[in-house]
Design a protein that fits this description.
Layout: H1 2-34, E1 37-38, E2 46-47, H2 51-57, H3 60-91, H4 98-106, H5 113-130, H6 140-168, H7 172-180, H8 185-196, H9 198-213, H10 217-222, H11 234-244, H12 248-277
Antiparallel strand pairs: 1-2
Helix pairs in contact: 2-12, 3-6, 3-9, 4-6, 5-6, 6-9, 9-12, 11-12
């Protein structure tokens, strides 16, 4: 039986492998090639070498969007994970209505990013108009913190579920032994709970880092990069370069920006995974 399964193994793998190759590998390779070209369509690409990358890396709007994205990602990642972990701690104490609270916190994650962006745009603009402040599209600070609030509101519930799973996986015997030894709640949290949920922290940090760095739809609908590209994040900057600017040179420059964007996200994700996985406790 095992030999028969091995014999037909390629037949089972072939459809998935073909779909992955056609849907991802080929477009990815072609995208890298086009980043070195000037083109309007893939059929009229003209090789220009590294000029697209030189232009992309000297584009002030691209550099500004990079640092804006970094600032957003740092604050967003910290706030989401701290809030999600705090909520998970509360909801694993056996309080009444736990399942209801979990559902309420998780529900924003089910709403599309474009819809969330427009909802929060209306809410924040209403608040700003009441306090007589510039509206979202005219206020860089409001746009930045609006994105932070929106991202946290959407993502906290999802990360909370992962942290709850990690906390519930901790053996009660460990916590009981710590209590017998005289450990208080803070010591139990730092010495037992945090090390034991490090695998959950690794997953949540990876998801929030990559999701924050790749944020597009919420940025498009909430601020649109206004005022004057001040709240434009990397993904939106690449989109605007590729689609909003006329001329064949901008397609290649937008593609070069996308490749740089991909490399940055991969490097950040790999560094984070290595740093947090080294602290995981084997159970």
């Amino acid at each position: 039986m095992e030999k028969t399964l091995r014999k037909y193994f390629p037949l089972f793998v072939l459809p998935t492998l073909a779909a992955f190759t056609i849907g991802f590998i080929v477009p990815f390779a072609e995208g890298i090639y086009l980043s070195f070209c000037k083109f309007t369509t893939v059929n009229n690409a003209k090789w220009v070498g590294l000029s697209n990358y030189v232009t992309a890396l000297s584009d002030e709007t691209f550099l500004h969007s990079f640092w804006f994205t970094v600032a957003f990602t740092v604050v967003s990642t910290l706030s989401i994970n701290l809030l999600a972990f705090a909520v998970a701690l509360v909801l694993t104490r056996g309080i009444k209505g736990t399942n209801l609270f979990r559902t309420v916190f998780f529900m924003p994650n089910l709403i599309g990013g474009i819809v969330l962006g427009y909802i929060w745009q209306i809410l924040i603009n209403c608040v700003l108009s009441i306090v007589e402040k510039p509206l979202l599209g005219l206020n860089t600070s409001a746009g930045y913190w609006g994105l932070i609030i929106l991202m946290a509101w959407q993502q906290v519930g999802y990360m909370m579920i992962i942290y709850i799973a990690g906390l519930q996986n901790i053996s009660p015997d460990l916590l009981e032994a710590a209590a017998i030894d005289g450990a208080n709640s803070w010591q139990a949290l730092v010495k037992i709970k945090l090390p034991m949920v490090m695998s959950s922290i690794t997953i949540c940090l990876f998801l929030t880092l990559t999701n924050s760095f790749k944020l597009f739809d919420q940025n498009l609908s909430l601020t649109g990069g206004e005022p004057n590209h001040a709240t434009e994040m990397l993904a939106l900057n690449i989109y605007n370069t590729f689609y909003a600017r006329s001329g064949p040179q901008w397609k290649g420059i937008g593609q070069a920006k996308a490749v740089v964007f991909f490399i940055v996200v991969v490097v950040i994700a790999l560094v984070q995974l290595k740093a947090t996985r080294s602290k995981e406790v084997q159970q």
